[in-house]
Amino acid sequence: MSKPNMPIILETQNLTHVFPDGTVAIKDINLQIRTGEFVIVAGANGSGKTVLLRHLNGLIRPTKGKVLLEGEPISKNITAARKQIGLIFQDSDSQIVGQTVAEDVAFGPENLRLPPEEVDRRVKTYLEVVGLSKLAQQSPHVLSGGEKRKLAVAGVLAMQPKIIMFDEPFTGLDYPGVVQVLRQLVSLHQSGHTIILVTHELEKVLAHADRLIIIYQGKIVEDGNPQEIIGRSEQYGVRMPLGKDEGVDAMTWLK
Ligand SMILES: Nc1ncnc2c1ncn2[C@@H]1O[C@H](COP(=O)(O)OP(=O)(O)O)[C@@H](O)[C@H]1O
Ligand SMILES: [Mg+2]
């Protein structure tokens, strides 16, 4: 289900990134994402997915082109854009900043200079949401892979962004971890968030998505209805869902 009547929340215009060594990571990406959409971005290794996500919340600057949030260039106010657009990194370890789980979640809201009571409230709320309340006083480094990813989700949620982007959130997770992250994704979408999910594990999420975008060598080569596109995905190095693996079980289990 696409969302043709919803306003465009995020847009890129001719977004291009060339690294100093000459690598053209993404080229002339024109993308419009509507409020409440659940968009999957797929593509082979090195196709430019992570570079694209990093542009979408202003972590890197374009060589050419721009990113607009609700019609305004994010470069005008990167801090405001980051508040609205959360990114959960592929490597959860690199996102950990706190000495304890609770401190880690507090980091974002503290940076927003919210009053301490509000910070505490958000820490409690979002640890609850991801199911980590019991581990609040633990060191993040003792958490499992799945728990670390949930911690990253809580940290992003605590900023109360409208758009949440996930870069390969299933990497390195065992089956229960996958199911838990998947549940989180679906429930965030149901609560009205716009979701942008980078993954090559399409079988785990395809049934939930409104839209599938395929990137190939830094360019968008497909963008539309997942069921229509999936049949053409293999030529771009994106594996077809197998249909009978644990990912499908996970989806069935969720419903
Ligand atoms: N810091 C960098 N310097 C040079 N090239 C880079 C750098 N980071 C990424 N690249 C290249 O940019 C392209 C896109 O990378 P990336 O977005 O990470 O791909 P993926 O789709 O696997 O996430 C790849 O060719 C990658 O090698
Ligand atoms: Mg990547």
Main sheet record = 6 strands, mixed
CATH topology heading: Rossmann fold
User: Nearest-angstrom radius of gyration?
Assistant: 18 Å
| End-to-end C-alpha gap | 17 Å
Spatial arrangement of strands, main beta sheet? 6-7-8-3-9-10
What would you say the CATH architecture is? 3-Layer(aba) Sandwich
CATH level 4 superfamily: P-loop containing nucleotide triphosphate hydrolases
Order of helices and strands: EEEHEEHEHHHEHEHEEHH
Give a count of the beta strands, DSSP E runs of length 2 or more: 10
Number of domains: 1
Estimated share of beta-strand residues: 15-25%
Structural class: alpha/beta
What is the share of helical residues?
25-40%
Mean pLDDT: 90
Number of helices: 9
Low-pLDDT ranges: 244-255
Name of the level-1 CATH class: Alpha Beta
Bound small molecules, by name, code or SMILES, are: adenosine-5'-diphosphate, magnesium ion
Q: Which geometry do the CA atoms define?
A: globular
